[in-house]
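#structure-requests
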Amino acid sequence: MISREEVREALTGPVASLSTPFTFDGEVDYVGLRKLIDGNLTGGSNSSLLTYGDSLFTLLSDDEISDVTRVVVDQTGKRGLTVAADGGWWTGKTVEFARYCREIGADVLMVKPPIWGGSVTVDTLVAHYQEVAAEIPIMLVTNLWAANPSQGLKTIEVVLDKVDGVVAIKDDILGQFVREMTAMVSDEWAVFAGGQKQNHLDIVHYGAVGYMSTFVSFHAPITHQYWDAVSQGNWTGAANIIAEHEWPFFEYIGGLNGGFDAGIHGLLELSGVAGRWRRKPFHSLNDQELEGLKAFCQSHGWLVSV
């Protein structure tokens, strides 16, 4: 079983979140997924990370989630940490999937408990994490507490004390919540920021070790420039990279039809990894939108080889 130290090392720096690619006909593109994993590892990520959101589990069946996980484990091999993700299932199903992940060789499982109408409590969440962590080391994710951050901090406090199998946590809430959370757990768990470099910069001084990197998948030099600045304590340099590259990038793709994920899948095509396609009813970029994304990225020097 992987150690806390190995998990922390693998999640230090840029963390590549996997976007499940599809063919034009809506089939999972496993060839493209394998190419994406290879590119992320070459680009500087020390892990292959599946998430309920970015990996589009909302568009996959339970069997497909299992198949995608197996391919990610196989393609990553010993080259990096493999983080699986569950489908937001009830405890029994999540435990079953955790056992499957352990058997196929995944290192860590990101656990996203189901939430609806205030149905979960601190006690039920702690019990959920305990049962799943008995099968495989687990990672928590904070987005389930977006509407109730006080419950989140209390749950994390209890889990830190009572559940030995937690090794990491990914944040999506930001603000004072994540600063308090990071200060609370960073000695024991590897903390990394979801989404953007600026989110990492907000919590690095509280003990966060990494961040989810978008650029590592299509223009890795930006990733290295940012992490080099952080490693050297060059905070002004790190902030300048965010202002020059991250802000315009996310402003542009956030305004695309279909949202930022449509843009991420467009970049898969522009980078030669896979097609731009997503399953219906999600919007996939049309030719004009893809050309606009290409021109925008080229104007910033991010796709000079296309």
